Amino acid sequence: xxxxxxxxWVIHYDGSSCNGCDIEVLACLTPMxxxxxxGIINTGxxxxxxxxxxxxxxxxxxxxxxxxxxxxxxxPKVVVAIGICANNGGVFKECYNILGGVDTVIPVDVYVPGxxxxxxxxxxxxxxxxxxxxxxxxxxxxxxxxPAIDAEPxxxxxx
Length: 159
Ligand code: SF4
Hints:
By secondary structure, the chain is an alpha/beta fold. The protein has one domain (about 10-140): Rossmann fold (3-Layer(aba) Sandwich). It is about 30% helix and about 15% strand. It has 4 helices and 7 strands, in the order βαβββαβαββα. The strands form 2 sheets. A 5-stranded parallel beta sheet has the order 2-1-3-5-7, with helices on both faces. Strands 4-6 form a two-stranded antiparallel ribbon. Helix 1 (about 20-30) packs across helix 4 (about 120-140). It is globular and about 45 Å long. The structure holds iron/sulfur cluster (SF4). Iron/sulfur cluster binds near residues 56, 91 and 115.
């Protein structure tokens, strides 16, 4: 974590989840899992956020909200899709109103599997996202000499 040069702020949006993944995201913010030890703070303002945590799948009603939150976040930014619904629609994939996962409307950097996603997996996904964030920051600054990040390429879970 030595490559984190500032406290990354996250914003959480529940697309159309059953709230299972949202409870786990909230658990990460409690003293039990304590993501604040990484300097991570939850904000309600996309203009202050570096990392976009999305739970649930994308549908006709929320697609514009997801796009708007994403567009209001400053560059560089990272999107973490949490849970199989956010990955690809999950159990709701075939429903008439479901368009699919978060990547149907915005680019996703990290896919966190699970139904519900476990707090440990969410924290792992966010930390990977911080690596991607630093890579993007380096690219924006034209800095290729910065520490290498061990973030792996995003892999998508199949339902
Ligand atoms: S992945 Fe499972 S727990 Fe998470 S929102 Fe979808 S159905 Fe709920």
